Amino acid sequence: MDSWKCVVAYDSSVMARMQKKFWKTKQVLIKATGKKEDEYVVASDADLDAKLEFFHSVQLTCTELLKVIEKYQHRITRLSQEENELGLFLRFQAEHDRTKAGNMMDATSKALCTSAKQRMALCPPLHRLHQEVETFRRRAIADTLLTVSYMEKARTEYRGALLWMKDVSQELDPDTYKQLEKFRKVQTQVRGTKSQFEKLKNDVCQKVDMLGASRCNMLSHSLCTYQTTLLQFWEKTAHAMSGIQEAFRGHVPYQFTTLKDLRDPLDEITEAQKQEDKKERPRHSNTDR
Q1: Which candidate, 148, 132, 138, 163, places its Cα nearest to that of 24?
Q2: Is 102 exposed, middle or buried (0-12, 13-18, 19+ CB in 10 A)?
Q3: pLDDT tens per residue, range 97-156
Q4: Which of 49, 118, 193, 232 is the Cys-Cys partner for 158 at CB 3.0 to 4.6 Å?
Q5: What is the reported pLDDT for 183?
Q6: Which molecular function terms from Gene Ontology are attached (predicted)?
């Protein structure tokens, strides 16, 4: 008799696990296919969904920021190289020009070469910013994403249990002991999954809030260093260019004259040749007569 009770209890536990898996799978399909869920259940997670939307925004923008920093560093390097090449070119031309224009080219070449070197000072703070964002993405965002995945799994189990309880409650007959006992078991299952889901839900909300605050602190600290370096660069560059302008103030610029309606000499030669041919044609006709 005892062995028979054990077999019945085992069969019922197996059936319960199968039913739990069935309703969990059904919830997964509902979410995957985008079918409408219970509006009250969805509304109860509105604050959580808002946190998740913010988290995914942080995740996406950090990845995009890393790409932008890499492109920015590359273009700063290329611009500094081109600026230095222009400065060297002007220096070479100034060595062969002893006029006032040569002096201007020499002064400008020095300013451009200096500006190219100072521009490269922007790379270290950008490199530091790239490292901090990458570390933030690999650690803070990855840790939060792991908690989010656990929470989503718990939410699926909880909502699947709610579907199960809804199905059982529709066929519930209070006078039938077995149905009432089944409903109580399902209700216990719902309470257990809800408790686990609520705990992970709070963890996710707290971690997302901390993630947003950490990102603000990281960017304000790193961008402050970059901003200071950038302002110093522009101040030195503006001072050098202003010095060139003051040094050569009053210098008479070159006057250029643009020639308009200038005909091609080949066209004039062709036109003259045509006129000669016209004059020679009547002469040949009189000779023949």
Answers
A1: 163
A2: middle
A3: 877 778 888 888 999 999 999 999 999 999 999 999 999 999 999 999 999 999 888 888
A4: 193
A5: 65
A6: protein domain specific binding
